[in-house]
């Protein structure tokens, strides 16, 4: 089972990317979770360059090959980062996310956990035809105190919540 993981943060020390790495390490042997890199290389979405861009084609192929997708995103100015929204816009007309099971996470050093970004992300993922339920998303507040300086998630309750999220996604994929 191949699952793609997309971080909404381009920061090299991103807590959201570290959350995705933690989930990848929690996956059973027969499940491979690969982090999609290079969101910053995608051009700004324009219908005028719909076909032919190498980075867009590679990105679409990676999503197409995945049985499900996990997102983890920070909140920027009460919304999702522009690079993540741009990447999702590239999948609207090509439809790689249509009917695909997803899991979505937001994480923030604030106690609100980036919940507005999560709501916004789920709205966009609804427009894209993805499959998810109430157990498919979590926002994680106070993230800096739940990880060690090297980025490892250390908080037991958070690790448990990430495991449950992954289990729910794998179940949805098996049913599809
Ligand atoms: C431009 C900018 C806007 C931000 N706006 C918010 C916000 O609206 N809500 C929030 O909870 N955190 C906000 N933050 C703080 C981020 O949650 C914080 O930088 C977080 O660690 C980013 O996640 P990352 O470590 O995965 O990059 C903002 C940060 C930046 C740089």
Question: Could you characterize the architecture of this molecule?
Answer:
By secondary structure, the chain is an alpha/beta fold. It has a single domain (2-175), classed as Flavodoxin domain (Rossmann fold, 3-Layer(aba) Sandwich), CATH 3.40.50.360. The chain is built from five helices and five strands, in the order E-H-E-H-E-H-E-H-E-H. It has helices at 15-26, 54-65, 82-89, 115-127, 156-175, and strands at residues 2-7, 32-35, 68-73, 102-107, 137-140. Helix 1 crosses helix 5 (156-175). It is globular, with a radius of gyration of 15 Å. The structure holds flavin mononucleotide (FMN). Flavin mononucleotide binds next to helix 1.
Order of helices and strands: EHEHEHEHEH
Rg to the nearest angstrom?
15 Å
Fill in the CATH topology: Rossmann fold
How much of the residues is beta strand, in percent?
A: 5-15%
How many beta strands in the DSSP annotation?
Answer: 5
What structural category characterises the helix and strand content?
A: alpha/beta
Bound molecules: flavin mononucleotide
Major β-sheet profile: 5 strands, parallel
Count of structural domains: 1
Unreliable residue stretches: none
N→C terminal distance: 12 Å
Shape descriptor: globular
How helix-rich are the residues, as a percent range? 25-40%
């Amino acid at each position: 089972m191949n699952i793609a993981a997309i971080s909404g943060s381009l920061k090299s020390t991103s807590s959201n990317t570290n959350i995705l790495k933690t989930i990848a390490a929690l996956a059973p042997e027969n499940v491979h979770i690969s982090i999609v890199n290079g969101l910053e290389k995608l051009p700004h979405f324009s219908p005028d360059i719909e076909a032919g861009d190498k980075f867009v084609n590679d990105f679409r192929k990676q999503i197409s090959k995945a049985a499900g997708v996990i997102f983890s995103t920070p909140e920027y100015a009460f919304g999702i980062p522009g690079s993540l929204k741009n990447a999702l816009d590239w999948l609207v007309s090509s439809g790689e996310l249509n009917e695909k099971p997803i899991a979505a996470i937001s994480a923030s050093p604030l106690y609100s956990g980036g919940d507005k970004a999560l709501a916004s992300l789920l709205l966009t993922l609804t427009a894209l035809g993805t499959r998810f339920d109430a157990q498919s998303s979590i926002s994680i507040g106070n993230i800096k105190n739940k990880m060690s300086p090297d980025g490892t998630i250390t908080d037991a309750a958070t690790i448990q919540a990430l495991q449950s999220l992954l289990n729910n996604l794998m179940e949805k994929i098996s049913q599809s």
